Amino acid sequence: MNSTPSQAGKGLPVADIVAQLGGVLCGDGSVTVLRFAPLERAQSGEVAFLARAAQARLLRDCRASCVIVPEGFDEAQGFAAVIQTADPYLYYARLSQWLQQLQTPPSSRGRHASACVDASARVADDAWIDAFAVIEADAVVGPRASIGAGCFVGRGAVVGADSRMLARSVLMHECILGQRCTLHPGAVVGADGFGYARDAQGAGVRIAQTGRVLIGDDVDIGANTTVDRGALDDTVIGDGVKIDNLVQVAHNVRIGPHTALAGCVGIAGSARIGAYCFIGGGAGIAGHLEIADHTVIGGMSLVSRSVRQAGHYTGAFPLDQHQNWSANAAALRHLAQLRERIRRLESQLGPAASRQADAGKAGDPSARSTTAHNQP
Questions:
Q1: What are phi and psi of 197, to 5 degrees?
Q2: Distance (Å, whole) CA 202 – CA 206
Q3: Which SS3 state, helix, strand or coil, does residue 159 take?
Q4: pLDDT tens digits for 137-190?
Q5: DSSP for 314-362?
Q6: Which helix (H) or strand (E) covers residue 93, if one does?
Q7: Three-state secondary-structure class, residue 160
Q8: CB 64 within 8 A of CB 79
Q9: Whole domain around residue 349: which residue ranges?
Q10: Residue 5: band (very low, low, confident or very high) from pLDDT cuts 50, 70, 90
Q11: Does residue 88 lie within any of the structural domains?
């Protein structure tokens, strides 16, 4: 959002919002708003949004100057301004960025006196290097980029234009961060991947990790998330990818554009995740497999084989000895077919036989007596 609204210092006029983001304005376009607030607590000077018409009851206690509602929703009475739009939640996301710009102080330029910047590093004149940040030899920091306090940019690494490295985030040597990206505090991009061979005695022998991490544009990486560098090839994160806190992305993983990973996801080495996927929190993804574009993986699910057809997948399996686990997992995939076979057999046997079998399984004494009575 690069437009500068009129009267920006006093708030954002609703007419300017609609001119920039679209939607249908009902009411007074000169009303100004300063911030978002929840529907039930919003007051004058604030804007709120109603995600679904079914939640209209939440408008009763709302005192916002402006509300954003679904297209064609005409029940928002008593508000100075109303914006109707096809997707209020998406509208909220875009407007929230604009309002945040009004509240954020202008970016600084130059470098803090305590920053350590190698003489061979190329830092744009309008970039900012904060206190105790380290920029190593041959690194590049692009226009309007911001390197926060205590950050580290390794030898030959690149930080793209308008990207932000927040306090204590790390971009290791030769890794590339695209434009308009954000590394949140504690994020580490480009640490060694977990690669070891075993000698005759079973001791680990480290494999040098000589690849890089290549991150596209408009990528957000959450606090304390780690993205490991490749072993031979590169780890690649596509444009628009959003990664939550405490996520582990192992070496040589490739993630397609606009995929989102929720907190505590773990992705093993060389997995390939498609574009526009959503991986729920705590999911585990085994290495060397593929996940198709537009796939949703439910939270806490375990993905142990490739998912080649888009869809919504959920599930995990209890820990067991591997041989037994593999056999049970294979049988579980055919559980629906087995159920249908049992139903057909029960239908052929008739209802009396089915009830007798069920009672016998439950240890019902009447089943035993009936069986005895029916014996010759």
A1: -95, 165
A2: 12
A3: strand
A4: 999 999 999 999 999 999 999 999 999 999 999 999 999 999 999 999 999 999
A5: --------HHHHHHHHHHHTTHHHHHHHHHHHHHHH-HHHHHHHHHHHT
A6: helix 88-103
A7: coil
A8: yes
A9: 342-374
A10: very low
A11: yes
Asked whether 127 and 109 are in contact (CB, 8 A), the reply is yes
| Residue at 75: amino acid letter | E
Q: Quick one: DSSP state of residue 281?
A: T
CA dihedral for 70, 74, 77, 80, sign (positive or negative): positive
Distance separating alpha carbons of residues 24 and 91, to the nearest angstrom: 12
Domain count along the chain: 2
Kindly state whether residue 368 falls inside one of the protein's structural domains.
yes
Report d(CA 25, CA 170) in Å as an integer: 44
**DSSP assigned state of 257:** T
How far is residue 204's CA from residue 197's CA, in Å, rounded to a whole number? 6
Q: What is the pTM of this model?
A: 0.83
CA 305, CA 264: separation in Å to the nearest integer?
20
Given 184, 251, 258, 288, which residue is catalytic? Answer: 251
DSSP string across 21-32: H--EEEE-TT-E
Of the candidates 77, 103, 129, which is a domain's last residue? 103
Rounded to whole angstroms, the Cα distance separating 29 from 314 reads 46
- Residue ending a domain, among 52, 71, 103, is 103
Query: Is residue 127 included in any domain, yes or no?
Result: no
258 is catalytic: no
Amino acid 362: pLDDT? 58
Check if the beta carbon of residue 180 is closer than 8 Å to that of residue 199: no
Q: Which has the closest alpha carbon to 230: 194, 193, 196?
A: 193
164 has which bridge partners? Answer: 146, 182
Q: What is the pLDDT of residue 236?
A: 98
- In the numeric block, which tokens belong to residue 9? 């210092």
321-374 tens-digit pLDDT: 888 888 888 888 888 898 999 999 988 887 666 566 666 655 555 544 444 444
Q: What is the pLDDT of residues 189-228, one digit of tens each?
A: 999 999 999 999 999 999 999 999 999 999 999 999 999 9
Structure tokens at 56: 């209209």
CB 309, CB 293: distance < 8 Å: no
Q: How far apart are CA 276 and CA 285, in angstroms?
A: 16
Measured in whole angstroms, the distance separating CA 12 from the mean position of its chain's CA atoms is 29
